[in-house]
Amino acid sequence: MSFTLAIIGRPNVGKSTLFNRLVGKRLALVDDQPGVTRDRREGEGRLYDLTFKVIDTAGLEEADGGTLEGRMRQQTERALAEADLAVFIVDARAGVTPLDAHFAEVLRRSPTPVILIANKCEGRAAEAGLAEAWRLGMGEPVPFSAEHGLGISDLHDAILERLTVLREDQAVSQAPRVSKGKKAKKEPSTPEHAEDGTEGEEPPSGPLQLAIVGRPNVGKSTLVNRMIGEDRLLTGPEAGITRDAISLDWEFRGVHFRLVDTAGLRRRAKVTDRVERLSAYDTKRAIDYAQVVVLLLDGQEGLHKQDLWIARTVIEEGRALVIGLNKWDALKDSKAAISEVQDRMIRSLPQVKGIPLVPISGLTGRGLDRLMDAVLEVYETWQSRISTARLNRWLSAMLEAHPPPMVSGRRLKIRYVTQVKSRPPTFALWVSRPKELPDSYVRYLENGMREDFDMPAVPIRFLLRKGDNPYA
C-alpha cells in the first residue's frame, strides 16, 4: 500500500532534516535560521520495508492570509489535506511552546492521522521536553533525533501501526454491500493496468528534465503554476520567495516533464546571507541535472549582465537553452524589447547561435504553447546523432573551402571526425597535431556544423585527438 506522509511543525524544529533522512539525500535546505523552507517539497521516502511519498512543509505560524507567512501556512494546510498520514514535530529541547499547543489542537480536529515526534532527543536536556509533549493530547510521543537517526525503528513501528488502522478503515468503507438472498457478482479478474491498455507495453523513458532559472522576481514560480494549472508554488510581490529547487511532475502533449522551479540568482558580490548561498548552490545543481533550461527574463527590464552569466553557465554545463521574455502583456513597445534582447545575445553569446527567444506571460499563460514548442525542438536537437559517413563528407567540404593553417612550415591535417556522444552533441576530431590547431579554426568547424546540420541553441563540443603514427 503506497501512502503519503506530510511533515508538520513550527519553524526550526527539524522538519527538513527529517525529510532528508527519509529520502536518503540532502534535497531540502537545512540551516539554523528559522523559516528556511517556504514551498512544500516532495520526495520518495524509504523506511526499512516502507516506501512512500514524503512532503516537507513550511513552518506553521500564526499570520494573516495575505502575508508571506500566511501563504506559507496555506501551502502546509494543502499538504496536510493531501496526506494519508502526518508527522507533527516538536523540539524536545525547547519544550512545548504555545504555538505547538495551538497547532496540535488544529491537527487533532484534522481527519488525517497524526504521529507526534519529539525531535532533538539526544542527551538529557531533552527529557523534560519529551515528558511535556504528552500534554498535547496526541498520544505517546516518539523520541527522535533527525540529525543522528535515533528513534528510526520507533518511527517505523508508529507508522506501521497507523497504516494498519488505515487499511482496516478502508477495507470496511470499500466492502461491497450485499442484500439478503442475493449473492454479490464476482468481477472478472483482470491484470493490473489492463483497463488502460498498457499491459505488455514497454515502460516509458524517463521524464524530460526542465529547469526554470533567472534572477529574483522575474516570475519563475508564477510561470510554473500556470504550466501545471494550480497554485502549487508560493508567489507574491516579495523578491526571493523561492529558496529550494522544487521539482514537479507534469505532462504536456503526451510528454512527461519534471519541472524544476529554482531560486533567483543574484550576482555573487551581492550574496551575503548563508541561506541565499545555499539556494544558489541548489539552483546550480538543478542546472547540472537538467536537460533543457528556460532562462526567464523580465521583459520590462531586458537582458542584464547577470542573465548573461546564467546563460553562459547553462551552456558550459552542456544544456539546451531557451529564453523566455516574461511579463509580455505589460510591455508598451514589444518589438523594440525583442530586438534589443536579440542584439545583446548575438554580441554576448556568440558561442551558441539561434537560441529561441519566446515572449510569454506567466500570469495569463500567453505564449506558453510557443515556449513548450521551442523546448521540445531544442531537446530533439540536443540529443540528435549524425552518421559518421555524413560527418566525413561534410568535413571534406569544410577542409576544401578553408584548409587548416600551417604551423612551423607544415600544414595541419584533419583526417577523421565521428560523433562520440549526444546530449550535448560531442564529436571527436583526429588531427595530426591537436595542440597546434587554433581555437578559431575549431569555431569555424563548429559554426559550419551548426548551420549545415541545423543545430541551433545547443552547445557543440569537439574533442581533439591524435591518431597513432604507423611509422613510429
UniProtKB/TrEMBL annotation:
Residues 171-209 are annotated as: Disordered. GO terms for molecular function: GTP binding. The keyword Repeat applies. InterPro entries: G_ENGA, GTP-bd, GTPase_Der, KH_dom-like, KH_dom-like_a/b, P-loop_NTPase, Small_GTP-bd. Residues 3-167, 208-383 form the EngA-type G domain. Residues 186-196 have a biased composition (Basic and acidic residues). Signal peptide: none annotated. GTP 1 binds at residues 9-16, 56-60, 119-122. Keywords: GTP-binding, Nucleotide-binding, Repeat, Ribosome biogenesis. GO terms for biological process: ribosome biogenesis. Gene3D superfamilies: 3.30.300.20, P-loop containing nucleotide triphosphate hydrolases. GTP 2 binds at residues 214-221, 261-265, 326-329. Belongs to the TRAFAC class TrmE-Era-EngA-EngB-Septin-like GTPase superfamily. EngA (Der) GTPase family. NCBIfam families: GTPase_EngA, small_GTP. Associates with the 50S ribosomal subunit. GTPase that plays an essential role in the late steps of ribosome biogenesis. This is GTPase Der. It comes from Limibacillus halophilus.
